[in-house]
């Protein structure tokens, strides 16, 4: 597999030293050997410095790998759930929380963390409260809420304040940053006065974490919010008279910037593909060992988070009880020494221009992979891009917005009349897609059939649902084959 020449690829930060390269390579080699569950198995992947310079480290196959082979498996160093899922998804393993109501799951003090029944039984909620993570997250919510005008300064202790409502406005990247900062402070302090078993939490290699790529994310209002957070944590520290029982780390803005820039540069979306278009991303996580793969729009490997299949707590012999586990598997054969490439973005049904815009806006590089080099010699790629090209003036954002709203109705509503109306709206959207000249293989056109299948099933029109389901998978199969 050819390199994409992604000079700003999220695969390292700053100039690489020989010792840093050796450390990362050794870590990946040891971890990939453990993944194989065989003491005699050689490592699957290693890391080398990109020959184009810039200090970028790239994961490469350490031996010949076959289609379906597991390259590497590891636990998340940290995870943060998106606001709309915080009461229904576990903040440790991302599994659904099966409780009677939101108040049974979401922490009432910070409004950020919920735990599933398995993680609760293993002591995750006790660790959250006794380790000080809850206080640190509450300080984040309070500081950001004041700076961004969500509440008045000094109003955090008011009985009328619903901390969960305030927390919904806090981006998951900030929450993940605070959780990582608190965990690092905790590890360095080697605290022993915590209620609950620390072994339930995944071990974090902070030296490897410090090797991750950083993306600058600073702005004026952001600076004010972080300054307020640091002051809030200092106040919490002063309130305990700097005793050994202080649970909240006294952080600096530089420390917050450093971790946040790695979270943004190397964060992975936590995706549940059983959810509808526009609502599949349920959180953000850092998988340190999985942060050295190059990008390709025609990747030779893919990453999955094992949500809902029982693998979350049984991924490897050394996996802790409360952890999200991600695995990378090969989509095709990979020769020894070749890059192991993932796609940083969803690529099915997107034209070259759409992919390039997404990559430029989010990762700041121009992809030069095989699928994007539309030379005369690559007639197949050129024809495929022509088929997927979106006509100028097409309003895809409106189409996606209507589809997302319809999906929510199909999933949540028991009103058959409302479902019927939504089916009619989806069919109107389908006609609009055709009139705009958007290809049937584009993701928005394919989503029409998936939505209709869900809507018909909700009305017990199973023959219609099966027909739309078959059409959706037929089109998806053509995209995959392309």
Structure description:
It is a single chain. The chain is mainly alpha-helical. The protein has 3 domains: 18-76 and 287-387, SET domain (Beta-clip-like); 78-266, no CATH class; 396-481, no CATH class. 42% of the residues lie in helices and 9% in strands. It has 15 helices and 10 strands. The chain has helices spanning 18-35, 117-121, 124-130, 133-147, 163-167, 172-189, 206-209, 220-239, 253-266, 352-363, 379-388, 396-412, 416-435, 443-458, 462-481; strands spanning 45-49, 57-61, 70-75, 78-81, 268-271, 281-286, 294-295, 301-304, 325-330, 341-342. The chain has a 3-stranded antiparallel sheet with strand order 3-9-8. A hairpin with a 7-residue loop joins strand 1 and strand 2 (57-61). It is globular and about 65 Å long. It starts with 17 loop residues before the first helix and ends with a helix. The relative contact order is 0.13.
Feature tags:
three-stranded antiparallel beta sheet, 10 strands, 482 residues, disordered N terminus, 3 domains, Beta-clip-like, mainly alpha
């Amino acid at each position: 597999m050819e390199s994409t020449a992604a000079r700003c690829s999220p695969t390292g930060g700053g100039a690489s030293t020989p010792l840093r390269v050796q450390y990362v390579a050794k870590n990946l080699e040891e971890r990939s050997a453990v993944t194989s569950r065989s003491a005699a198995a050689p490592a699957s992947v290693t890391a080398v410095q990109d020959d184009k310079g810039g200090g970028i480290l790239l994961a490469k196959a350490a031996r010949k790998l076959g289609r379906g082979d597991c390259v590497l498996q590891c636990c998340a160093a940290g995870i943060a759930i998106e606001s709309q899922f915080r009461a229904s998804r576990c903040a440790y393993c991302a599994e659904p929380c099966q409780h009677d109501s939101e108040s049974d799951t979401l922490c009432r003090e910070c409004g950020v963390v919920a735990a599933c029944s398995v993680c609760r039984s293993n002591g995750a909620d006790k660790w959250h409260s006794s380790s000080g993570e809850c206080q640190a997250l509450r300080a984040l919510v309070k500081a950001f809420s004041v700076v961004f005008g969500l509440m008045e300064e000094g109003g955090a202790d008011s009985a009328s304040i619903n901390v969960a409502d305030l927390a919904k406005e806090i981006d998951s990247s900030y929450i993940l940053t605070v959780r990582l900062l608190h965990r690092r402070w905790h590890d360095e302090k080697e605290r022993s006065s915590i209620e609950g078993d620390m072994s339930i939490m995944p071990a974090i290699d902070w030296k490897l974490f410090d090797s991750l790529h950083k993306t600058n994310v600073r702005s004026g209002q952001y600076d004010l919010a972080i300054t307020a957070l640091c002051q809030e944590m200092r106040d919490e520290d002063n309130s305990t008279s700097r005793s050994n029982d202080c649970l909240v780390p006294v952080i600096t803005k530089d420390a917050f910037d450093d971790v946040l820039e790695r979270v943004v540069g190397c964060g992975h979306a936590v995706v549940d593909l059983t959810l509808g278009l526009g609502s599949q991303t349920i959180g953000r996580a850092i998988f340190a060992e999985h942060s050295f793969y190059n990008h390709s729009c025609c990747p030779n490997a893919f990453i999955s988070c094992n949500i809902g299949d029982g693998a979350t707590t049984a991924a490897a012999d050394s996996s802790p009880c409360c952890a999200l586990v991600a695995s990378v598997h090969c989509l095709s054969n990979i020769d020894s020494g070749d890059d192991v490439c993932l796609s940083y973005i969803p690529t099915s049904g997107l034209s070259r221009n759409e992919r390039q815009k997404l990559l430029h806006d989010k990762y700041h590089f121009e992809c030069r992979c095989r699928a994007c080099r539309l030379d005369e010699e690559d007639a197949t790629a050129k024809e495929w891009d022509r088929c997927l090209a979106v006509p100028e003036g097409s309003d895809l954002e409106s189409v996606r917005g209507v589809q997302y709203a319809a999906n929510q109705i199909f999933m949540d509503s028991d009103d058959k009349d409302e479902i019927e109306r939504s089916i009619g709206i989806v069919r109107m959207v389908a006609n609009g897609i055709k009139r705009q000249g958007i290809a049937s293989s584009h993701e928005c056109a394919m989503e029409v059939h998936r939505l209709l299948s869900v809507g018909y099933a909700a009305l017990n029109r199973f023959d219609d649902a099966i027909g739309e389901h078959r059409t959706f998978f037929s089109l998806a199969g053509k995209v995959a084959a392309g």
